[in-house]
Every structure is written in structure tokens, then in C-alpha cells.
């Protein structure tokens, strides 16, 4: 019986079967981790630059509304073309839902910025389909495109009410009472619609938490409007 340790083979001596040629068990895991890190980085860039769009909108007053919103729209387009495009390229053609936790924060902030800018310009709510349509040109037509799912869209809308609350308080301070009341109605409508949808959602833990904060924002807007009306009467 031969001692296996003493067997010499041209394949072994040539190094063809050396450890460097053998499959690495953790290679796929390493590749997935690297991809996840790139997705997280891209999501953070989307978050940071979407916040800049929101800050730009808050610079709006009754004297500079058109100018400020034009700048905000340009900033939002830059977020889409520079940062969302990077996220799309990382995720297109893959089971991107598996990495949702990695990119969801950036998507939510992007939805918040887009809907905030859209409301201030047009007075209406930007729909999920409208947002997803802006992402389609960023994708390779031969691959499955990244599309924002309904949960991330609704989570972004929940955050939107916080910005609407700050906007309403600012408009009241500037004497734009009609605009403040419009903001109040808009925020109230969003909250009312979500109270009908959220109880039927499967993965709604985050949404239920945000609904509590959302209600506080709506109440602050309403209280601000009521207080202003009372002061006006007095």
C-alpha cells in the first residue's frame, strides 16, 4: 500500500494543483460584501446630496420662490444623474431587493427631496410611477432596471411631512397664511391616506414608527395655523 504523502505527480511538482489554483470558498462572499459596500457608499452620497436639495427649498420665501425652486430642480437633477445613476448601475440586472437594507436610506431621502420640490413647485404629490420613470433612462435597456418599491416610497413620504411642518411654520412667520393652509391640507391628506394603507402592509414596522412622528408633524402644522388665525382675529 502506497503512502499517499510520498506520491509525486507532475501535476503537483508543476504547481498546477497548488492552493493558488484551488477554488476559494469565501470568494463569492467577498464579492458580495464588496458590492454591498459600494451600494452603501452610493446610498450615502444620494442621502447627503438629497438633503442639500431639501435645504435649498427651505431658502424659499415669497420674494424668491421661482429662483430658489429653479436651483432646487437643477440640484435634484444632479442627484439623479450623478448619484442615483451610480446606485442604478450597481443594482441593475441583479436581485436588487436582496440589498434593499443597504440602499433604502438613500432612496427614502431621494423620494423626500423629489416630492418636497414637486409640491413646492406644482402643489401636487409626485407619484411613485413618476419617480421611477425618471430612473429608467439611467439603466441599461438590456438589464432589469432598479425601481423604487412602494415601501421605500411611503417611508419617504412619511419623512416629507417633517419638512412640510418646517415649511409651514416658516410661511406663517412670513405672513403667507394661504400657503401655510395649503401645506396643512396637503400633509393632512397624506397622513389620512397612509392610515388606510399601512395596516395592510406586510413589512410595516418602520412605517408604523414613522406614522407616529408624522402625526406629530401634522398636529404642529394644524396648531400653527389655528394659533395664527386666533392672533389675526384678536
From TrEMBL:
GO CC list: cytoplasm; nucleus
Alphabetically sorted, this entry's keywords are: Cytoplasm, Nucleus
Q: Does the keyword Transcription regulation apply?
A: no
**Is Cell inner membrane among this UniProt entry's keywords?**
no
An example molecular function term from Gene Ontology annotations: sequence-specific DNA binding
Show the CDD domains listed in the entry. TRAX (cd14820)
InterPro entries, from UniProt? Translin_C (IPR016069), Translin_fam (IPR002848), Translin_N (IPR016068), Translin_sf (IPR036081)
Principal localization? cytoplasm
Q: Where in the cell? A: Cytoplasm; Nucleus
- Similarity comment: Belongs to the translin family.
PANTHER family reported in the protein's UniProt record: TRANSLIN AND TRANSLIN ASSOCIATED PROTEIN X
This chain belongs to which protein, by name?
Translin-associated protein X
UniProt organism field:
Arachis hypogaea
Upper classification of the source organism reads: Eukaryota, Viridiplantae, Streptophyta, Embryophyta, Tracheophyta
Amino acid at each position: 500500500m502506497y503512502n499517499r504523502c510520498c506520491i509525486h505527480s507532475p501535476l503537483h511538482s508543476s504547481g498546477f494543483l497548488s492552493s493558488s489554483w484551488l477554488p476559494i470558498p469565501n470568494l463569492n462572499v467577498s464579492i458580495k460584501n464588496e458590492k454591498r459596500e459600494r451600494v452603501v457608499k452610493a446610498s450615502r452620497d444620494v442621502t447627503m446630496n438629497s438633503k442639500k436639495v431639501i435645504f435649498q427649498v427651505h431658502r424659499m420665501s415669497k420674494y424668491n420662490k421661482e429662483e430658489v425652486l429653479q436651483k432646487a430642480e437643477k440640484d435634484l437633477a444632479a442627484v439623479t444623474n450623478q448619484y442615483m445613476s451610480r446606485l442604478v448601475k450597481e443594482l441593475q440586472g441583479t436581485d436588487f431587493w436582496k440589498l434593499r437594507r443597504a440602499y433604502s436610506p438613500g432612496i427614502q431621502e431621494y423620494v423626500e427631496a423629489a416630492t418636497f420640490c414637486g409640491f413646492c413647485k406644482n402643489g401636487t404629490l409626485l407619484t411613485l410611477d413618476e419617480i421611477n420613470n425618471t430612473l429608467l433612462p439611467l439603466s441599461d435597456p438590456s438589464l432589469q432596471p432598479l425601481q423604487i418599491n412602494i415601501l421605500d416610497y411611503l417611508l419617504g413620504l412619511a419623512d416629507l411631512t417633517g419638512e412640510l411642518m418646517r415649511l409651514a411654520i416658516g410661511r406663517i412667520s412670513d405672513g403667507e397664511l394661504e400657503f401655510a393652509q395649503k401645506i396643512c391640507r396637503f400633509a393632512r391628506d397624506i397622513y389620512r391616506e397612509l392610515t388606510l394603507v399601512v395596516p395592510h402592509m406586510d413589512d410595516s414596522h418602520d412605517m408604523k414608527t414613522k406614522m407616529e412622528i408624522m402625526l406629530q408633524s401634522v398636529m404642529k402644522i394644524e396648531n400653527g395655523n389655528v394659533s395664527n388665525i386666533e392672533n389675526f382675529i384678536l
